[in-house]
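Predict the holo structure. Ligand: NDP.
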Amino acid sequence: MLFNKKKTQNCVIIGSGPAGYSAAIYTARADMNPLLFTGFQPGGQLTTTTDVDNYLGFPEGINGIDFMKNCRMQAERFNTKIINESVNRVILSNKKGGIHRIFFDQKKCIESRGLIIATGSRPKFLGINKEKKFLGLGVSFCATCDGFFHKEKDVAVIGGGDSALEEASYLAKICRKVYLIVRKDYFKASKILQCRILKKKNINILFYSNVTEIIGGNFLEGIKIFNKKNKKNRTILISGLFIAIGHTPNTEIFKNELDLNEKGYIIVEKGKTITSKPGVFAAGDVQDPDYRQAITSAGTGCMAALDLEKYYLLQT
Ligand code: NDP
C-alpha cells in the first residue's frame, strides 16, 4: 500500500488558488485523499480580478470568480476534502516520513506526512483612500489580466521596479497613453527594461511623484498626483490604475519552519517544489517572485503533487 489510510493524513494542501486546486486534483487522482484549507480568501487573488482572458482553454475568457469556482468543483469531483479555514500555525518534522502538524481554528490540529503549501502572495497596496473600493473597477494589480479592458484608453502604472516597467511596456501596446509614476527620480528596474521603456513614445514618465487621491464614481476616473520637486498637485484622467510596487509572500507562519529567501519566499530546489523539510512542497506564488501567473501556478501545483507522490514511492 502506497499511502497511510489511518488518521494521519497523506496530503494536506494549504491554499485555494490555482496552485492549491491543481495540487488537489493531482493528489486526489493519485489516491492520496487530499485535504485542502481554503484560507481567508477562498479562490485566492483571481477572485479579485474581473475576467481571466489569458488562461489556456477559455477562448472567450472567464470571470475570475467563476474560474475559481470551477477549480473547486473539479477538485471536489475527485473527493478533495475542503476545509473553509485558515491555518494559523505549523510544526514541521525534520525527518523523512515524519509527521507535520497543522493548526487551525485556534486549537484544532491535523497531522499529515505530506504537505503542499500554496498560500500565494499579496500585492502591496499604496495605502490611500478608495484604492480597495475601486479594485476590479479600474484599479488592478495585473496588466496581463486587465490591460485589455483599457484598450485605446489612458492608464497609469505606479512603481519603478521591474514589475512596473514590464506592466507599462505591456500596456503601451494596448493603451493610448501610459503614465508611469515613480516616487524617486530614478528607476529601481534593470537597465534593459529601462531602455525598453524609454523607447516607447506613449509612455509618459513622472518622477518624484506620489498618488495622493483616487477619483471616481462607480468606476475609476482619475488620480491626483503630488510632485515632490516642484511641490505641485496635478490631476490625471485615466480609466485604469495599475499598482506594481511589489508583492509580499504569505509565509508568516512558515518563518521558523522552512528556509525562506531574503524577501520571504519559500526556497525550493531548482526545477522542483521540494522545500527544506522532507514531505513539504511549495507551489505557486509563495515560491515564485517572477512569473506569478495563474497558469504557472497551476503548473507548479501539479509539480508539487507529483513530487509528493515520488516522496512516498521512494519510501516503499
Ligand atoms: P520591487 O520591490 O523591485 O520594486 C518596487 C517598486 O515600487 C520600487 O520602484 C519602489 O520604489 C516602488 N514602491 C514601493 N512602495 C511604493 C509606494 N508606497 N509608492 C510608490 N512606489 C512604491 O518590486 P517588483 O514587483 O518590481 O519586483 C519584485 C522582484 O521580481 C524583483 O526582484 C524583480 O527583479 C523581479 N521581477 C523580475 C522581472 C523580470 O526579470 N522580467 C519582472 C518582474 C519582477 P523605491 O525604489 O523607492 O523603493
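The longest strand covers residues 209-216. The two ends are 8 Å apart (CA to CA).
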